[in-house]
Structures are given as structure tokens and as C-alpha cells.
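Q: I'm writing up a methods section and want to include an example of the input and output format. Could you take the sequence below and give the corresponding predicted C-alpha cells, formatted cleanly so I can copy it straight into the document?
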Amino acid sequence: MSRISQKDLMLEVAAGNIPNTSSVNVFGRNLDVDIAASEDIWSGGGTWTAPTQARTHDIVSTDTNDDGGPAGTGARTVKIYGLTDWSTAEVTETITMNGTTNVSTSNSYVIIHKMEVTASGSSGPNIGTITATAQTDSTVTARIEPGIGQTEMAIYGIPSTQSAYLVKIHGSILDAATGDECNYTLLHAPFPDTEETVFLTKMSIGGRANGSTSMQYGFKPYNKLPGPGILKLQATVDADNQDIGAGFDLILVNN
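A: Here is the clean output for your methods example:
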């Protein structure tokens, strides 16, 4: 009798066993969403804004101890993940921190969708808030909250060299009173090179703090989103001061 082996697709993708294919798990958190307006799910709060064009970014902390020198007890180096334009694959670079003094990125970015601390001192990963601010237009593209060690932003840029297959979205209402509700909206900007602020609604799903505060939705078949584009999750709540976490899982296929 022959045996048929059924491999786990997600494991094979994550392990790099499928050519031209990769995966990414995107998650974010907004500690204070209010009734007044929908807010993007990222640690910056309010509405996240992309740079108006490819910009060099200033990386800086609010604490002098986030420093690359031997006396730096917080974050010493930070790795940047982003796109330099909408027709080029993701690039990375590593920044050596200089406390409260700006350090410029080597690359110019149309989006930075992730930063993470890659080396730290005895009080790491990071003591202060680390931000990436675009020069000229001053948009804060990404930030790392104190002690977290990486960005929490349910936002991702897809270059034209790839197509994103949306596998799942998930969300949670944290520290909520029973009955509090949140509506999660998945938004997609299909023309980020010319209309980076125009987002289309791809789906909405609700969650309620009534015994269980979490929700998840899996796409079958997976939702294909050709690049270029920006994906982000947004929260709308029915009570002020809501702590909302959410994210999505993608399979990325090279075109």
C-alpha cells in the first residue's frame, strides 16, 4: 500500500521550500481608539500617512540610552524594512542608534512597514519611543513603543513585483467592558504611486467583548491583491479609550 504525503502549505511557504513564494504575518495595536473617528491599527494612533514620495527618514529615540555606543543600555541597532519605490522588491538596512539625535537612512522610502531592534544593551530592547520620520514632509511612517522591540502596525506595502494572497485577518478588543464593540475594516490602496491616500474597503467584520473579545476570518479561496498596493486595518468603536489589536497573514508570490 502506498502512502500519500500531504504537506502543510503554510509550513512549506514559511520554510522557503516553495520557489518565488514567501509569507508575512502583520500585526498592529492602537492603545486608544475613540468614538469620534475610525483609526488605523498602529501604535502611532489616528490615521497613518504614507510619505508623499520616496523620502530619506530620520530614525531617533526619545531616550538617550537608545544608543549604538558601548554605554547604550537600550536599543543599539534597528533594522528597517520597506520599499524604495512601488516597482522594486522590499529592501532592508540596519541603523546604529544615536539616542535623541537623528540618524538618516541610507535609502529613501515610499513606505517603512516594519522596524525591529536587532541589538540592545542591558535594559533593552528599547527604552524610548523610536520613530521613523520622513524628511521634508515630516510623516511619521513607523514607530516602536518603549520596551516592545519592534513596530506594531497592521499596515503593509506590496510592490508591483509581487502579488499578495490574503489568508486571514484577526482582531481583539483588549481590556474592554462587556458589550463593547469594534468594527474592523480592511482597506486597500491600489494606486499608491499616484493616490497614496485613496483606500478602498475590501471587507468589514465586527467583534464584541462578550465572553470572548477576539475574532478571526479566513479567506477560502485566498483573496488575491496584485501589487503595487497598501493594505491596512482600521478600527471603529462604540466606546472611547479602546485598546485594539489586529493583523493579517499574507502569502507573497513573485510576479
